[in-house]
Amino acid sequence: MSISVKDVEHVAALARLELSEQEKEKFAEQLSAILKYAEQLEQLDTDGIEPTSHAMPLVNVLREDVVKPSLDIEQVMRNAPDEEDGQIKVPAVLE
């Protein structure tokens, strides 16, 4: 399959891109090369190959959740810029 300059112009218009004539021709060649390579991949015999979503098996690298004691409310409020009714008071974001 080959991509024409007209196809590139259409995609550029959808993406709201302004391309010069040189860029349109260059992108048409590059996109055609990509599709030609994809056509080569379609010719591969993939019978008996199990579908995968990742080339490598995924392993959870996150640590286990461990319950730890939290800071005392008085310690927290000592570092707060302002406090009201046991809550940290911050400037209003919305009016």
UniProtKB/TrEMBL annotation:
Family statement drawn from the similarity comment of this UniProt entry: Belongs to the GatC family.
InterPro entries, A to Z: Asp/Glu-ADT_sf_sub_c, GatC
Reactions catalysed, as given in the entry: L-aspartyl-tRNA(Asn) + L-glutamine + ATP + H2O = L-asparaginyl-tRNA(Asn) + L-glutamate + ADP + phosphate + 2 H(+); L-glutamyl-tRNA(Gln) + L-glutamine + ATP + H2O = L-glutaminyl-tRNA(Gln) + L-glutamate + ADP + phosphate + H(+)
Gene: gatC
Coiled coil: none
Keywords: ATP-binding, Ligase, Nucleotide-binding, Protein biosynthesis
This enzyme's EC code(s): 6.3.5.-
Pfam families: GatC (PF02686)
NCBIfam families: gatC (TIGR00135)
Keyword Nucleotide-binding (UniProt): yes
Name of the featured protein: Aspartyl/glutamyl-tRNA(Asn/Gln) amidotransferase subunit C
The organism's place on the tree of life at top rank: Bacteria
Subunit relationships: Heterotrimer of A, B and C subunits.
Species assigned in the record: Paenibacillus filicis
